[in-house]
Every structure is written in structure tokens, then in C-alpha cells.
Design a protein that fits this description.
By secondary structure, the protein is of the alpha+beta class. It contains 16 helices and 39 strands.
């Protein structure tokens, strides 16, 4: 410590939450003795230790921007303290000055700003840890640690226990600090004590329902453990019982809880005023009982004020219009019965429903830019269809008008407005024609695009990234997207603080000027990467998944990608990556930031199981147990079991997401599979090494090496086939696969495409005893019909080709293509299509497969939809055997029932062309999920 007589305390403690502008309000020392003198020495001490690391000292020096040799300035010292506070890395700063050697020596005393590593709960928790942690929203990993936040967390935990009847809970906070990382584990040790019990439960006030009936429905009974959450649920039960009994305006006061002195017993009192008995009558319109609460909010919400009555009137009107009474009128009157005063109220809703119509057509007039078909999916109004009268109402028409206006504005009609919503009635007075009359106004073109404020990147380079350029039609959406593009492009170049604003200037009735105003900021480099929250996970393993390194430019998109990669491991339930200022480089150059990677680890073991059914192979089941953080290295190890009557699989696998810091997720696997096919059984042992490469957002490629030992047995085919396949088959093969998926829903797609292709080469040079080239590809496409947007046309093409070489003419039977069943050719049973054995009539499979599926999926009623389909295709012994005349043809129909886990499917297929002798010509298929 410097001698007190020679020291001047330039700043004392600054409270953590005080602004830096107030840091010097208490200065009282005379600093005139230092005026005009040079600074000869600057020392930095962290948390009272004089031996701070060189890196930390240099970082502080870059923030304070004061160097030895400069003239002493109290103002600059004050500014340096402000800079240190603003960096977010210090919780307290003081500066001491000493006259020495004809100059001034400064000592900066830095108290590091601790950050939260994690919150640990100890003691007798009783409740799930996740429920308690969720209450501590000021103590997230990576957040700045403060005593205020710790105390608030303590109070939140105490409040949590109090609400559940643990009034004697004791919560003791503490912390464990890692000085090397400036991180702290906040610990709350909990002693809950005994849970209080209910001594008595009373319902008081002007209660008009039988008390015995009310009390019997409540969970808060004498002798039961007290729980405020359950007591509040009882308040809602009391309210609901009143609504069901016609008392629509009950007043239930605050729950009264009184603890008996010297005991752990509480008395619970529910203050209740039942209010008047309310009768609600709807005249002129019958509402089914199941729809009454939907149509009449007063019945489910309660209340008798004008607001709820108007809300109910509007809801009733909307309900009537949705039922086809598009010109209905609804009014109400409220009659407070006088005998006895205030004891009953009668509310009548009077409906003049008028004629009932069906929405025969919806049209858009006044513009050729859009048609109803183009916006039908986004509109709330619907045309009539099978078993539906269509849907519209005044409320829906207003919303639809806004949608049409936005669509036109997005096409360049900036001043487009829907001027009229016309409802026309057909001559037979049954059909309603809805017409939106549009005044589209002039179509606005972009006359000029101006980019201001750009110095680091040329205007030409930025303009090449924009969707809207000179001559294009104006679109508010594209302007916003282009501003985001510029911002993201700057961020990708290391300008983390860049910002873009836009101005739209009219240049006449049909032209606009777009101005992008850019505030570039400056390039920002990564100073340090600080990882926190990883209790079990190796820090180097986390670093390997990061897309950025110390010393590199700070690119926000790389931070986001790194977050995504860490989430994809499954090892973390929360990942937060953010940066904070860290001053400038030691040479006074580029701006720097520290990047904080804060994680909350998930439970590493994950168990997945499921059950299903398919008519091709009966019940199905799957069980998988995985460790998503094997050995703390963010590797995934898993054991998987899958079984059905025809197929059983046991698999061990190990996955690395980023081996050797490359974006090439790698899978190694050992697999045993037992297959029971139509013509044979087989045991298959597989060793696999697979590398994955993502190509864009929707595409991924796979490269594999497989070594397989296949033993076919129980062959149900002729001797010639047995001789070919009675020996073990070894396959060493290289494969490449490509998958692209743009479907809107993988379980039940309505739009988009799916493509997969796999080509493999089996060779003796790769360790096998069979040689062939094999290709299997599939393309699926889904469309919504233009005029019937809820009807989907789905089509699929599957093509398989295989060519043996080295003397063989056919593949081993276990490697051939088979087809037929609920997901391919639905006029056949499982694998019944294609060439058959002359002696046993069993399918033999072949070297070529072609399957074309076409399906029309349409709604019927509610969750039930229907399908009409045709399946064309066959299996051929050799590629040269392919003939169009040998293709089979199946037609059929099916039902689909939507469920939260996907559709349940029933399909009935009729085989029309090329059935084999002795085969049934129709089959029923059942499964979970669509056929394709």
C-alpha cells in the first residue's frame, strides 16, 4: 500500500448501480499538487492482488487510454473510470496517485465484475429444481452478479415455499468464486421446515349456493396440507360453480389466510358475494348446447356490465354469420328485476337472423394483380365446399380486406385500398357472392436507390445484395428485408455495431426514392472467449464447436451459428452467446470485445420410446437411450432397439458433431438386423462410418463406408435361388446420398418437395465378395389446388437401378429391390409385386424398381379427410427387362384422421392391371402417417 501522506484517493467506491456520471461527486481532496506533472508509472491491481496477468493489465490499459509520459489530468482519469465501468468487466474502481521521482504514479484498483456460472440448490428441495430455478430470472448464467440479485433470488425462493405452505422455510445464500474466470456459483441452501396444514376452511359473505355443495367441491379441506396454488384453484372452482348455477357476477374477495399462533395450522377463508341470479335468453336463434359457451362469452367469463354484454353481442353475431346467416342483426336488453331489488337480472339477446346462405364464391374486383386463388390460403373467409357452407362474417371481411391491401402493397401498389366489401345474393337466394372491390392506385416503381454512410464497403457491392433496385416495383416487405441484408452483410465483415435506417421519398405519383442510411461503426475483434456454466462438459469441446476464435473479427452470424451447433448437441437446455466491450488492442488500434459463451447443461441421458402399427408388419416399437455428452466431450453415444414382426434392429452408435474442428458430423455404428421378408429371412451385421455435410438450409449430403455380413436363410424360393444365396454374403461398399427437403410438414405435407438419392458401389476391393452398382432415388412433390386450397395433390416417383459386374447377372436376394404394400403399390400385399418363383410363387425381387404414386387429399369433415389414389409400377429382374406394358396399375380410396402425432391412414387399393396368378386384387392398408 502506498504511504498515506503521499496518496490521494481520486475515487472511492462507486455503487454497482450508480451511473458513472456520479462517480466523482464525493471528491474533496486537493489535486493542485499534481497539475502539470507527468505520469511516470501506472500499476493495475485486481481484487487487491498486485500480480495481475499481463493480458488483464493490457486490457485495462486499452480501456483507460492513459499512457506513461502523458501529463496528469483528473478529467482523463475520470473518463478512464467511466470507460472501465462501461466495459462491464468491473464492479468497483478506485485510483490512487503518488508523487514520485518528479512525476505521478497511478495505481488502479480493480474489483472484477463477477458473472454467474450457475445457480446451485442444496438442502431439502422437495420441489423440482427446474421449478425453483425458473423463479430466479435475474440469475441467468452469464449475467452480472450483484448482491441485490442474490437477495431477490432468496426472497423468490422463500415466496415459492410460502405459497406452498412452508412458512418456516430458511434459505441461506452463499457463493463460490473462481477468481481465474471471474465466475461465481450462487448457492442457496434450503431448509423447508414442515408444511402447514389447514385447521379450518370457511366460505363467508352473501352466499346463495348451498355451502355444503360448495365445500364438497374444494381441495382445501381441514386436515389437508395447505397450498396457496390449490387454494387459488378453489377460488376458480367457486366462481365456476356460480356461473354454472346462473350467478354470473360473483364477487370473490382476496383469500384470507391466518396462521394460528404457536402452531403450524392455518385458517382459510373464502369471502364470497354470489350476486344476482342472471338468466340469459337468446331469441330468434337456436344454439346447440355444446356451442353455447363459444357463442356467448358471458356464460364462460361472467359479468353483467355493458362491456361483456357488447362482447357477447358481437360474438353471437359472428357465430350466426359463420353459420350462414350473413345478414343477421343482434341486439340486447338488460332487465334488472325489482322484486326483490338487485336479486335477479334478465338479459335477452334478440337475433334477427334473416336468410341462410352458402358462400358460393369470393371475388376480387378492381385489380388484375391478384386473384382470390392467390390469396385464398391467407384469407379467413372460405368458399363453400363438400359438407361446408363456407365461412365469412363482417369481422372476417375486415381482416381479409387488410390482407388483400398488404398483398397489393407488397406488389408495388403502395396506395391500394379495399373500398367496398360487397355481398351479392344469387337469384335463388341461397348463394352468397362476396366481392372485395379494390382501388389499386398506381403501381409504384423504384426510381432511385441511394446508399449513404458507407465507407468500408462500396455502394456497388451493397447494391448487388439488394432485391429492390432501380426499375423494380416498390415493396415495403422487400425494403425491410434489404435493410436487414445490409445489416447482416456488415456484421459478416466484422462491423458488429452497424445499423441501417431507411427513408422512402415520393418522386411523383408513381415513383419513389429509397434511401438506406448506414452507420457502419467500426470493425470489432474478439479479445477473449469466456465459457461458463459447463460443470460436466470439457471447455475445449465447447470451443471446438464455436465458429469463431480469439483474434478474429467478431461476426454476429457466426455467434448465432455457434449457438445453434451447441443446441444441436442436445447437451444443453440453454445457450447464450453475447459480447461486451473490452477496450482496444494494446497498440491502441482496433476495438475489441470479449465473447461470453454461457450454457446450462441438460441431463445427458435421453430415453425415447414409441409405438405404432402398420398393416404390412403389424405392431411396431422403438426404444433408444442416448448420452448426449459422452465423457463430457459433446459426443453422443446411443443404443437403439427397433422391432416389429418382420424387422428387428439393435444398433450401437457414436456421433461427433465437429471432428477435427470441421463441419462434418461423423457417425460410427455397429448394427444387427434380422429381416423376415416374403421370400427369405436374413441376419445382417453392419459396421458403418458416415460423414455428413450440410449444403444450405434444406439440403444435406452423406458419405458412407459399410462393411456388411449378410446371411440369408429359410429361403422360400427354388433351388436355383438357394444355390446362389446359401453362402454368406460380405459387402464392402462406398455410398453417397443427397437429401433435400422443403416440405411444410414432414408428417403431413401440403406444399414443398422431398428428394433423396443414394448411389453405392460394392466391390471386392472394399472387403466384400459381391460387386455391383446400385442407385435408389425418390422424389415427392405436394401442391395445393388453386381453387381448392384445402385440397392437396401429392405425387411420388421412386426409381431403383442395380447393375452387378464381375460375372454376376443378378444381385444377392437380400440386396434386390422389392415392392408392394401400404407405402408403395397398394394393390399388393407387402413385397408381392414383381417377378415370382415358378415353383413356390414367392416374390424374387429384381435389379430394377419403378413406383409412381398419385394422390388427391381433400377435407371431409373436421379432422377427417379423404384420398383418391393411383399407384403405377413394378419390379423387374434385370434393367433390360423393363417394359411399359409390364407396369401394374392400382387405384383406390382412403380416409385420414388427423391427430396431434400425425394422421391415421386407411387405404383400400384395387389392382387393375398385371396381377400375378393366385394373388388377391384388393387390399386394405392401415398405418400411422401418410403413404408418402
Amino acid at each position: 500500500m502506498l504511504p498515506a501522506a503521499c496518496c490521494l484517493l481520486l475515487s472511492a467506491f462507486c455503487l454497482l448501480f450508480a451511473s458513472p456520471a456520479h462517480a466523482f461527486q464525493s471528491i474533496s481532496a486537493d489535486v493542485s499538487a499534481y497539475a502539470g506533472k507527468r505520469i511516470v508509472k501506472i500499476d493495475v491491481a485486481f481484487d487487491g492482488a498486485a500480480d495481475a496477468s499481463p493480458g488483464e493489465v493490457e486490457q485495462v490499459r486499452s480501456l483507460i487510454e492513459i499512457a506513461e509520459g502523458q501529463e496528469y489530468s483528473a478529467i482523463k482519469i475520470r473518463e478512464s473510470i467511466i470507460a472501465l465501468y462501461q466495459s462491464g468487466q468491473t464492479s468497483n474502481v478506485s485510483v490512487e496517485a503518488e508523487l514520485t521521482g518528479g512525476g505521478v504514479a497511478l495505481r488502479y484498483n480493480i474489483a472484477r465484475q463477477l458473472r454467474i456460472e450457475q445457480v446451485a440448490l442444496r438442502g431439502q428441495l422437495i420441489f423440482p429444481e427446474a421449478d425453483l430455478i425458473a423463479r430466479l430470472n435475474e440469475l441467468d448464467p452469464g449475467a452480472k452478479l450483484s448482491e441485490v440479485a442474490i437477495v431477490r433470488g432468496q426472497r423468490e425462493i422463500e415466496r415459492f415455499y410460502h405459497e406452498r405452505g412452508y412458512f418456516d422455510v430458511a434459505v441461506q445464500p452463499s457463493r463460490e468464486v473462481n477468481a481465474a474466470t471471474a465466475r461465481a456459483v450462487v448457492i442457496y441452501t434450503i431448509s423447508p421446515g414442515e408444511q402447514a396444514r389447514i385447521n379450518s376452511m370457511e366460505i363467508t359473505g352473501n352466499v346463495k349456493l348451498p355451502l355444503t355443495r360448495l365445500k364438497a367441491q374444494l381441495k382445501s379441506q381441514p386436515g389437508a396440507p395447505y397450498d396457496q396454488i390449490k387454494a387459488q384453484e378453489d377460488v376458480e372452482r367457486i366462481r365456476k360453480l356460480h356461473l354454472e348455477s346462473g350467478y354470473l357476477n360473483p364477487q370473490i374477495g382476496d383469500l384470507l389466510i391466518k396462521r394460528s399462533p404457536g402452531t403450524n395450522l392455518v385458517n382459510v377463508t373464502f369471502p364470497v358475494d354470489s350476486g344476482p341470479l342472471v338468466t340469459v335468453e337468446v331469441n330468434g336463434f337456436a344454439i346447440p348446447g355444446k356451442d353455447k359457451e363459444e357463442a356467448l362469452p358471458i356464460l364462460r367469463q361472467g359479468g353483467v356490465d355493458d362491456f361483456i354484454l357488447e362482447e357477447t353481442r358481437r360474438a353471437l353475431l359472428d357465430y350466426a354469420q359463420r353459420e350462414g346467416y350473413f345478414f343477421a342483426e343482434v341486439s340486447f336488453n338488460k332487465d334488472e328485476r325489482s322484486a326483490p331489488p338487485g336479486e335477479s337480472i334478465h338479459i335477452a339477446f334478440n337475433v334477427d337472423r334473416g336468410e341462410r346462405y352458402r358462400v358460393a364464391a369470393i371475388k376480387i374486383e378492381g385489380t388484375d394483380a391478384i386473384s382470390f386463388a392467390q390469396v385464398a390460403e391467407t384469407l379467413r373467409s372460405r368458399e363453400a365446399s363438400f359438407m361446408s357452407r363456407g365461412l365469412t362474417s363482417r369481422e372476417l371481411l375486415l381482416r381479409d380486406s387488410e390482407i388483400i391491401e398488404r398483398k397489393l402493397q407488397d406488389l408495388g401498389y403502395r396506395r391500394a385500398r379495399v373500398t367496398e366489401r360487397r355481398l351479392g345474393i344469387s337469384p335463388d337466394r341461397e348463394d352468397l357472392i362476396v366481392t372485395f372491390v379494390v382501388d389499386e392506385g398506381p403501381r409504384i416503381q423504384v426510381a432511385e436507390v441511394i446508399i449513404n454512410g458507407n465507407r468500408a464497403i462500396s455502394g456497388e457491392e451493397l447494391a448487388s445484395k439488394l432485391q429492390l433496385n432501380r426499375g423494380a416495383y416498390f415493396s415495403p416487405r422487400l425494403v425491410s428485408e434489404d435493410a436487414d441484408t445490409i445489416r447482416a452483410y456488415y456484421a459478416s465483415k466484422g462491423y458488429a455495431d452497424s445499423d441501417v435506417t431507411t427513408d422512402i421519398n415520393d418522386l411523383g405519383p408513381s415513383q419513389v426514392q429509397i434511401v438506406y442510411n448506414i452507420n457502419e461503426g467500426e470493425k470489432v475483434y474478439i479479445n477473449r472467449i469466456i465459457i461458463g456454466g459447463n460443470l460436466k462438459t470439457n471447455g475445449d469441446s465447447i470451443r471446438k464447436l464455436l465458429r469463431f476464435r480469439e483474434g478474429q473479427l467478431l461476426k454476429l452470424d457466426e455467434l448465432r451459428k455457434s449457438e445453434q451447433l451447441l443446441y444441436e448437441t442436445g447437451a444443453f437446455r440453454q445457450v447464450t452467446i453475447h459480447s461486451e466491450p473490452a477496450g482496444r488492442a494494446p497498440d491502441g488500434g482496433a476495438s475489441q470485445r470479449n465473447v461470453y459463451v454461457d450454457v446450462v447443461e441438460a441431463k445427458p441421458r435421453v430415453i425415447v420410446y414409441g409405438f405404432g402399427y402398420h398393416s404390412d408388419d403389424g405392431p411396431r416399437g422403438i426404444f433408444e437411450i442416448s448420452n448426449t455428452n459422452l465423457f463430457g466431450r459433446l459426443h453422443t453415444g446411443s443404443i437403439r432397439l427397433r422391432g416389429s414382426r418382420r424387422d428387428q434392429v439393435f444398433q450401437l452408435s457414436h456421433t461427433m458433431l465437429r471432428p477435427f474442428e470441421r463441419d462434418l458430423p461423423t457417425l460410427t455404428s455397429l448394427l444387427y438386423r434380422r429381416q423376415m421378408e416374403k421370400a427369405f429371412d436374413a441376419n445382417r451385421f453392419v459396421a458403418l462410418l458416415q460423414v455428413e455435410r450440410r449444403i444450405g438450409q434444406n439440403s444435406v449430403a452423406f458419405f458412407r463406408y459399410n462393411f456388411e455380413d449378410i446371411r440369408a436363410f429359410n429361403l422360400r424360393v427354388s433351388a436355383a435361388e438357394i444355390n446362389r444365396n446359401d453362402r454368406p454374403v460380405r459387402l464392402g461398399r462406398l455410398s453417397a446420398s443427397y437429401v433435400r427437403d422443403t416440405r411444410d410438414n414432414a408428417l403431413d405435407a401440403a406444399e414443398g418437395t422431398f428428394f433423396s438419392g443414394d448411389i453405392s458401389l460394392a466391390s471386392k476391393f472394399l472387403g466384400g465378395n459381391e460387386q455391383f452398382l446400385r442407385l435408389l432415388t425418390e422424389h415427392q412433390r405436394y401442391y395445393r389446388l388453386p381453387r381448392l386450397r384445402s385440397t392437396v395433390y401429392a405425387t411420388s416417383l421412386r426409381l431403383g437401378l442395380a447393375k452387378p459386374y464381375g460375372g454376376a447377372t443378378t444381385l444377392p436376394i437380400a440386396e434386390r429391390f422389392f415392392s408392394g404394400g401400404g407405402t408403395t403399390l397398394r394393390g399388393f400385399e407387402f413385397e408381392e409385386a414383381g417377378p415370382r418363383d415358378a415353383e413356390t410363387n414367392q416374390p424374387l425381387g429384381g435389379n430394377m424398381l419403378l413406383v409412381i404414386n398419385n394422390e388427391l387429399r381433400f377435407p371431409i369433415l373436421g379432422p377427417v379427410s379423404g384420398a383418391l389414389f393411383s399407384d403405377t409400377g413394378n419390379v423387374f429382374t434385370r434393367i433390360s427387362d423393363f417394359r411399359f406394358s409390364r407396369l401394374t396399375e392400382t387405384v383406390g380410396f382412403g380416409l385420414r384422421i388427423k391427430t396431434p402425432i400425425g394422421p391415421i391412414r386407411f387405404d383400400f387399393g384395387f389392382l387393375l392391371q398385371n396381377p400375378a396368378p393366385g394373388l388377391k386384387r384388393n387390399h386394405l392398408h392401415f398405418s400411422f402417417g401418410q403413404a408418402f
